[in-house]
Design goal:
Structural class: alpha+beta
Number of helices: 7
Helix content: 40-55%
Strand content: 5-15%
Distance between the termini: 7 Å
Largest sheet: 5 strands, antiparallel
Shape: globular
């Protein structure tokens, strides 16, 4: 199954559910969004966030090494440990209700017309992911793109397309953070 993924920002899950329940238009059209064909929120996006954090840690170490202030009498302070990268989204926003495979579900045969089976699906990304993406700096795009391009799932994507996508996700995340919003991913089969 080839999934279409659209990342978007919204005030909260109630706003997302309202749009999804209306069925009049996809979430990607109702909210500011970035189309990210095949960049799923559970495997590929966390690898970008990990590369971003690695790049950020490397830049901090380089800045400290180039600092003109040297204090030979003091041992350098240890670098703070990076926040752990969560593996994928925190929770599903759409569809609502119990998944058909949930242990408290009806126990009947799976209905393949059930929205849980057909989609679209929407998941909320952790605010830590939003904040990491919001920290993308334009001058770091080439190096970050090279790091992420080594990921199996995106290695066949043109580097310029990856760089544009990283930039677009960063802009979307900065706007979401600035406006106190969250990031979501809509997946469509």
């Amino acid at each position: 199954m080839d999934l279409q993924t659209d990342y978007f920002r919204a005030e909260d899950e109630a706003a997302v559910r309202k749009v999804m329940a209306s069925g009049t238009r996809p979430a990607a059209e109702a909210f500011e969004s970035v189309r990210a064909r095949g960049i799923d929120p559970t495997v590929v996006l966390p690898r970008l966030v990990a590369a971003l954090r690695e790049e950020s840690d490397s830049a901090q170490a380089q800045a400290q090494a180039q600092s003109p202030v040297q204090t030979p009498d003091l041992a350098p302070a240890p670098a703070p440990a990076p926040a752990p990268v969560k593996d994928g989204p925190d929770r599903s926003v759409w569809p609502t209700g119990l998944e058909p495979w949930h242990e408290e579900g009806p126990g009947a045969a799976v209905d393949f017309e059930n929205p849980w089976m057909t989609g679209p699906w929407v998941v909320e990304l952790p605010d830590e992911t939003r904040d990491a993406l919001a920290g993308i700096q334009r001058k770091r795009l080439p190096r970050l793109t090279s790091q992420w391009a080594r990921t199996e799932e995106v290695k066949n994507v043109e580097r310029i397309e990856l760089m544009k996508l990283i930039h677009q996700l960063g802009v979307l995340a900065r706007r979401a953070k600035q406006d106190g919003q969250h990031l979501y991913c809509a997946l469509t089969a």
